[in-house]
Automatic annotation (TrEMBL):
InterPro entries with a match to the protein in the record: TPR-like_helical_dom_sf
Gene3D superfamilies linked to this entry: Tetratricopeptide repeat domain
SUPFAM superfamilies: TPR-like
Protein name (database record): Uncharacterized protein
Organism: Phytoactinopolyspora mesophila
Length: 343
């Protein structure tokens, strides 16, 4: 149908004209089909329609200014906050529609500062969509969203955002059990970002590297990276320029505990318990991950009763947010027999 519309062989119905007007922000009207026999050899009508359409698209993109971009970024932040509590199942479609809207404006934006800023906004929204796809157990979808994020980050020329979305893409590889490829991707992001990003992001990148190293069982590199993350973490970890990075001492303790749990270290219990005690209750999905890590650590130590209790709590929290990712981790843990096949 799209091909027929584009070539002028099919007219828009009133329903599609209204939908297109709402989505693209420029007027579409219902029209009668124009067949090739009516056009003959003269393609002037199609050319004129194409020129008019381009003019309309460019006119619509003129509305992109600093205030509109701030509104887009505020919408992305609202989706982030909702995602922490509600999970991706309820929000991914909204995030994807948000990206489509911005991408359509970018496609027809002329070069300049506003185009670059819009590219940065798209990159972070696409990275959020990628994270939500991971939460729904779709690493392939997460990879595609992060490819969109990287392309938009290149468009923006923003080194900080490019480093963030590149490193986060490694989680698609980790969830797809492609551990050998995840660590080099994060290391590439770190190398490109060295000396060019704020300490808060450098700390976050180091923690991602620690997790990728832990997935490969590389204990020394894991500990070095997580220690580096702690060393550079700012005393005030709130940076309005980095709304996509949520990292403080509690979250870093949680991250350290997760890495140590993956390595089978008994030290993980202390870190995980400490993080759980101080975790903001709005981070429902993070709490599910904490309980899952505790179940793993207790099972390694032979504390199977405690492991069962932690796995059950993790499952309840994962169900609340619809997190397929955490549910898969818990199911794998139970299936392995590490919790004595807890229900």
């Amino acid at each position: 149908m799209i091909r027929e519309w584009a070539n002028g062989r099919r007219g828009l119905s009133e329903m599609y004209a209204e939908l297109f007007t709402a989505v693209f922000g420029v007027p579409f009207t219902a029209s009668s089909p124009v067949g090739s026999d009516q056009l003959g050899d003269d393609d002037a009508p199609a050319t004129q329609n194409g020129a008019a359409e381009l003019a309309d698209r460019l006119k619509a993109s003129v509305v992109v200014d600093g205030q509109l971009i701030e509104l887009f970024e505020s919408q992305t932040q609202s989706l982030r906050l909702l995602d922490r509590q509600l999970g991706a199942a309820r929000l991914l479609a909204q995030t994807e529609a948000h990206i489509v809207q911005m991408t359509e404006l970018l496609r027809y934006s002329l070069p300049g500062g506003h185009r670059s800023a819009l590219g940065a906004a798209i990159a972070e929204a696409a990275a959020l969509a990628g994270w939500q796809a991971l939460d729904l157990g779709d690493p392939a979808g997460a990879w595609r969203h992060h490819e969109t994020a990287k392309a938009a980050a290149y468009e923006s020329g923003n080194v900080v955002i490019l480093a963030h979305v590149t490193a986060q893409q490694a989680y698609a590889l980790l969830d797809a059990e492609q551990h050998e490829h995840a660590l080099p991707l994060v290391t590439q992001a770190l190398t490109a970002a060295r000396g060019k990003v704020p300490n808060l992001l450098w700390s976050w990148l180091s923690a991602v590297q620690a997790e990728a190293a832990a997935a490969r069982g590389e204990e020394q590199q894991t500990r070095q990276a997580i220690d580096r993350a702690a060393d550079v973490l700012p005393s005030d970890p709130v940076d309005p320029e980095l709304p996509f990075v949520v990292l403080d001492e509690v979250h870093l303790m949680r991250w350290r505990g997760h890495c140590l749990a993956r390595l089978g270290s008994a030290e993980a219990v202390h870190d995980l318990r400490s993080a759980l005690a101080d975790l903001d209750p709005s981070f429902t999905r993070a709490a599910a991950a904490l309980h899952c890590d505790l179940a793993l650590t207790h099972s390694v130590r032979g504390d199977h009763q405690e492991a069962r209790a932690e796995a059950q709590t993790a499952e309840q929290l994962a169900a609340r947010t619809g997190s397929a990712r955490q549910h898969r981790r818990i199911t794998t843990l139970i299936a392995s027999g590490n919790t004595h096949r807890c229900p």
